[in-house]
Specification:
Bound molecules: S-adenosylmethionine
Shape: globular
CATH topology: Rossmann fold
Order of helices and strands: HEEHHHEHEHEHEHEHEEHE
CATH architecture: 3-Layer(aba) Sandwich
Number of helices: 10
CATH class: Alpha Beta
Strand order of the largest sheet: 5-4-1-6-7-9-8-10
Largest sheet: 8 strands, mixed
Length: 293
């Protein structure tokens, strides 16, 4: 467990993932009925952009910083607003020094009767998280495997909510664990919204995950083309070795407005966050079923 999100907080991949997360929460907030957020790979909750890790790897300068500095068309600004409002609220001065992780986004967007469950396996990170949210009775922090938690705690008693699955991809079999976890949890809670983040470092592995998941969802009757969405963003050629070139999300049971919002947002983000030749984006409103032989 060497991965430290502090080196990557606020980068292009966080931008897409966190905006999608805020849009899902905003949608849940439209109804008064309480809901549950399960964050299976929580990290430490919020990040110090002036800290040692971010100074050594200032990826946020090519992510959140570019978004804040850019001239944003009105429709893009509307989509980014819930996320940017949180970033602004955490940064009172002119310089950007703090960035919200998924737990902090959930904390700030949920209401008094909503509940947040955070899983973090790293000993020190789980302690940091626990301390950070010790005074908020709506938040439960657990030092446990988020995949096992998914299968164990779903469905939530609220019957509404969102699961965000954001693993570090330190191991080659991460996608297999992710696929396994959804196969165990979706039958228990077929109506929940699930956000899966995955890297595009290994296109073969991500295609295998997406197609395998789509095939399983369709075969088991959990998915129609309207309730699976895939959104990817790459900032340089996907074939380039080295730093992460691209990343994206697969959302099961997305808010019905998410696809239209991403269709506006992705081309804008793709050109703003570009780091070299071969940048791009894609949005599949309906994952294709594997063609029959
Ligand atoms: C990409 S970071 C999470 C970032 C966070 N979701 C955010 O958006 O701010 C992944 C985290 O998962 C933790 N982790 C790794 N394997 C885990 C597992 N099986 N269960 C729970 N947490 C795990 C790592 O220690 C790391 O802090």
């Amino acid at each position: 467990m060497n991965y430290r999100h502090a080196f990557h907080a606020g980068n292009f991949a966080d931008v897409l993932k966190h905006v999608v997360f805020t849009l899902c929460l905003e949608h849940l907030n439209k109804k008064p009925k309480p809901y549950r957020v399960l964050d299976t790979h929580a990290g430490i909750g919020a990040y110090d952009l002036a800290g040692d890790e971010a100074a050594r790897s200032p990826e946020w300068k090519d992510g959140i910083a570019r978004v804040l500095e850019a001239e944003r068309p009105a429709d893009v600004d509307r989509i980014l607003k819930p996320w940017l409002d949180i970033v602004r609220a955490m940064n009172s001065g002119k310089t950007l020094t703090a960035y919200p992780g998924s737990p902090e986004i959930a904390r700030r967007m949920t209401r008094p009767d909503d509940r947040i469950q955070l899983c973090e396996l790293h000993e020190a990170d789980a302690r940091t998280l626990d301390k950070r949210y010790a005074l908020d009775s709506r938040i439960k922090v657990e030092k446990r495997d988020g995949y096992k938690a998914m299968a164990g705690v779903l469905p939530p008693k609220e019957k509404r909510g969102v699961v965000i699955v954001d693993p570090p991809f330190e191991h080659r079999d991460e996608m297999a664990h992710m696929a396994e976890a959804i196969k165990k949890s979706l039958p228990k809670w077929p109506t929940g919204t699930y956000i899966f983040w995955r890297s595009l470092k290994d296109m073969w592995a991500s295609e295998r995950f997406d197609n395998g998941l789509a095939e399983w969802l369709f075969d088991e009757g959990f998915a129609t083309p309207e309730n699976v969405l895939r959104a990817d963003l790459w900032v340089r050629d996907l074939g380039e070795e080295g730093k992460l070139p691209g990343a994206g999300i697969v959302v099961v049971n997305p808010p019905h407005t998410l696809e239209a919002d991403l269709l506006i947002l992705l081309p804008w983000l793709s050109s703003l966050l570009r780091q070299g030749e071969g940048n791009g984006w894609r949005l599949d409103g309906a994952l294709e079923e594997e063609p029959e032989d």
